[in-house]
Write a structure and sequence with these properties.
30% strand, 2 helices, alpha+beta, single chain, 6-stranded antiparallel β-sheet
Length: 96
């Protein structure tokens, strides 16, 4: 199931003009302890320092915190990403 999901996401990112990126970050937030797990999917993930486990949402990089805050209000925003469920966010990141 995971391989199918990752393949689907990669296909969506490459063909979705709203995202304008080939790289997505999936941020999953735990309801139990507010931990956040960040996984990168895409072409620019090899040297990403943003992936991993964070003790809280407040420990996430600022760019992620800002996009998550927006997606708490709106389910999908062009150039920002989307919220697939209550605790999972898919974020686009501009190159550079």
């Amino acid at each position: 199931m995971l391989a199918i999901t990752q393949g689907m996401v990669c296909s969506m990112s490459l063909s979705n003009p709203k995202l304008n990126t080939d790289t997505l970050y999936r941020v999953s937030i735990s309801n139990d302890n507010n931990n956040a797990i960040v996984v990168c999917v895409g072409m620019e993930c090899v040297d990403s320092g943003d992936v991993g486990c964070y003790d809280s949402v407040d420990a996430l990089p600022d760019w992620m915190q800002g996009k998550i805050a927006l997606l708490m209000i709106y389910k999908e925003i062009s150039g920002v990403g989307w919220r697939s469920d209550e605790d999972t966010f898919w974020l686009s990141k501009e190159k550079g």
